[in-house]
Design a protein that fits this description.
alpha+beta; elongated
């Protein structure tokens, strides 16, 4: 029998994952959740039916946060590709200068 596996994420983690997935590296972003609503008649038995509202999540996404937006906001610049470290740049310059000086 397989074990039940469940993963949960905070709002911030969902925003971060979507930024990385879409390759977004600029701006501040907030989570959006869109809902769908429907009305049905439901109850514990056919003799006890009541008007009932159903709410479903239709999509989850992110949107650019405007100035003054409240809530969980993630700065996409935190996910921009890192530049080469100074050591790597210096090492590449040394290799280049050795190649040029072998004339």
């Amino acid at each position: 029998m397989a074990d039940n596996i469940e993963f949960t994420f905070s709002h911030r983690q969902v925003i971060e994952a979507l930024l990385v997935k879409k390759g977004i590296t600029e701006g501040k972003w907030a989570l959006i959740v869109q809902f769908g609503f429907n009305a049905i008649t439901a109850g514990p038995s056919d003799d006890e039916l009541f008007p009932t509202a159903m709410v479903g999540v239709t999509s989850i996404g992110i949107r650019r946060a405007e100035e003054g937006t409240k809530g969980v906001i993630v700065d996409a610049t935190l996910f921009a590709p890192r530049r080469k470290t100074t050591k790597k740049i210096a090492a590449s310059r040394v290799k280049t200068s050795k190649t040029v000086s072998k004339k």
